[in-house]
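# nightly structure sweep
# worker-07 picked up a monomer target from the shared queue
# config: single-sequence mode, recycle default, output format = C-alpha cells
# input follows
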Amino acid sequence: MSKLFGHFKIVMTRRVLFIVWFCAMLVASLAFSAAAMDRWSALSMLESGDNDYAIGACGEISRYQIRPTFWPGGDPRDADSALVAAKKIMAKRVSRFEQAHGRAPTDFEFYILWNAPTQLKHPSKVVSERARRFANLVQRDKRNNFAQR
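# output follows
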C-alpha cells in the first residue's frame, strides 16, 4: 500500500509542477503580448506618445505627427482618421521603395521612410536611433507572436 501511495505522490508532484510551469508560461506570454506593438502602434508611440492632440514643432498633427501639407482632411484628433491618413502616405512611399529595391522595407527602413524619406540612404544619427527603437519595438512584437504559436 505504501508503495502505491509513494507512486501517487510522485505522479501528483509532477502534475502540480506541470500546472505551475504552465501557468507561469501563460502569465509570461500575456505580459509580453501586452507590451508588443505592430508598426502603426510603435509609430504612434514614438511620434507622439499616442497623443491624438499632439502638435509638433513644425505643426505636425495627430498621433502620427503628420505635416499639415500631407494631411488629407478630417479630424486629426480621431485615431482612426489619423491611421487612414498615415497608411495612405506610407502606401506611396513603400510602393516606391519596393519598386526601387525589389523587396519590402525592413522595420528600420519603414521608420526612415516615415520620418525622413530623403535620408533613407544616409540617415542622420538622430533618425537612425529612432529607427532602431522603432524596429526593436516591432521585432519584440514579432518574437512574442511567434512564441505564442
